[in-house]
Design goal:
single chain, alpha/beta, 4-stranded mixed β-sheet
Length: 118
């Protein structure tokens, strides 16, 4: 079994697209489809999307929900954590070794939590 995509809800599609366009720049992950209520980014094996909820209710972040991105190097963890903060994200844990892995945490503009690790 292999997870191949992850979707975060958003209440401001244009801000979310701007954040993730800039965040994924220079990572090999590129915007794929942008249609209606959903926009996705992919590198072929991995897909990530932001979407306005199908039921029309406001998007909320899941308490205890987190997306983990394996970046392959300590330098990339540090670079993308700082980039997320520069783009308006909020730190949820500065880069450091945790549970034997180098990792950092942040929340995006909709308060969704992301772990970057190597």
């Amino acid at each position: 079994m292999k997870m191949n995509y992850f979707v975060f809800g958003t209440n401001d599609m244009s801000k979310a697209i701007g954040f993730y366009d800039a965040f994924f720049q220079d990572t090999g992950v590129h915007k794929g489809q942008a249609m209606g209520r959903m926009t996705l980014w992919t590198n072929g094996d991995f897909m990530f999307a932001v979407a306005e909820p199908f039921n029309g209710e406001p998007a909320t972040n899941g308490n205890g929900t987190m997306l983990g991105l394996n970046l392959g190097s300590k330098q990339e963890v540090e670079r993308l954590h700082q980039k997320a903060l520069t783009l308006g994200g909020q730190s949820e844990g500065e880069p450091a070794v945790r549970s034997g892995r180098f990792s950092a945490y942040f929340r995006d503009l909709d308060q969704n939590k992301i772990c970057l690790f190597a």
